[in-house]
Amino acid sequence: MKNKIPNITIIVNTCDHFEDCWDPFFKLLEKFWPQCQYPIVLTTFSKKYNYNGNLNIRSLQANQYYNDEPPWSEILLYTLKKIPDTDIVLLMLDDFFISDYVDDETISKCYEIMKDNNYSNITLTNHDKKRSFESTENPMISRVKQKSKYRITTSPALWKVSSLKKYLISDENPWMFELFGTIRSHKIKDNFFRFNEECLTPGFKEVIPYFEGEEGDTGIVKGKWQKGIEPLFDSINIAIDFSKRGYYKTKNPLKKKIDTLLKIIKHPKQLIRTFFY
Q1: Distance CA 244, CA 247 (A)
Q2: Does the pTM exceed 0.90?
Q3: Closest Cα to residue 107, out of 147, 58, 66, 157?
Q4: Does the CA dihedral 38-178-80-24 come out positive or negative?
Q5: Strand, helix or coil at 180?
Q6: 3-state SS assignment for residue 57
Q7: What string of DSSP letters covers 197-260?
Q8: Residue 156 in contact with residue 148, Cβ under 8 Å?
Q9: Around Cβ 179, how many Cβ atoms within 10 Å?
Q10: How do residues 108-166 score in pLDDT, each as one tens digit?
Q11: What is the C-alpha to C-alpha distance for residues 203 and 206, in angstroms, rounded to an integer?
Q12: How far apart (Å, rounded) are the C-alpha atoms in residues 270 and 176?
């Protein structure tokens, strides 16, 4: 194992409306990842975030470059341009709240695997239950199958910058990146992997453990807090007024499918483009 610190930049993709997530996110990150030495870019639009801790966080403040707040993918593409000295990034979302200790050693190992083999992506989670994958010669990683669901995911993952750019289209939001990006990826021969939890450093549960509730693995669902997040915040004395956002109310499975279909139909340009990509 090489001793040099991996050249990784952490990108936490956000928007100013999610400002209330930033303190909990970074307090949990610092608690559960005390060895973290990587620079962090928080993709704000107009807000400048000042963290009272030991993390190296820089606010993008994209309003210096855009008159109006750009779509999620556009701001991510711009962020990648602003870190030209980094060829691998750790992409995270601002409501993926870390819930246990991060396996820093394994992140370094995955970085070396990507560098040595010129791989595009290694997902650092075992939440990917809908993905299909197959074993490789390296017991640490499995290959995500070419036609797998969620081949493209916003789960915490190491990405080669040049590869991530291939799957981003500037007018897409996170769910489009996952849904339409996955469809695009089915046509592109590329190397996508996920880390096998059997190879974790002893004593760790996941590479990057994070909160997972009944509605999925984000702390916020459709702009509302997901129930069950409170004990995690209470464990390190994070005070949140949950009434400001309110709590997400569970919908029946049929209603969820209808809502998803309607959401897709509302974006015909992106849908049609995906199939002719």
Answers
A1: 9
A2: yes
A3: 157
A4: negative
A5: helix
A6: strand
A7: GGGSPTT-S-SS-B--BTTBS-SEETTEEPTT-HHHHHTTT----TTTT-BPPP--HHHHHHHH
A8: no
A9: 21
A10: 999 999 999 999 999 998 887 889 999 999 999 999 999 999 999 999 999 999 999 99
A11: 9
A12: 8
pLDDT in tens, 4-24: 789 999 999 999 999 999 999
Helix, strand, coil proportions of the chain in percent (round to 5)?
A: 35, 15, 50
State how far the Cα of 161 lies from the Cα of 41, in Å rounded to an integer: 14
Per the CB < 8 A criterion, the answer to whether 9 and 56 are in contact is no
What angle do helix axes 268-275 and 174-185 make, rounded to 10 degrees?
20
- The tokens for 256 are 């969820």
**Which of helix, strand or coil describes residue 112?**
helix
CA angle 268, 273, 277 (to 5 degrees): 160
Question: Rounded CA gap, 42 and 9, in Å?
Answer: 11
Residue 194 CB-density burial (10 A; 0-12 exposed, 13-18 middle, 19+ buried): buried
- Burial (CB count within 10 angstroms: exposed 0-12, middle 13-18, buried 19+), residue 63: middle
Burial track 214-252 (b if 16+ CB lie within 10 A, e otherwise): ebebbbbbeeebbeebeebbeeeebebeeeebeebeeee
Side chain identity, residue 95? D
Nearest-CA neighbor of 160 among 56, 247, 88, 254? 88
Query: What is the pLDDT at residue 1?
Result: 45
In the chain, which residues have pLDDT < 50? 1
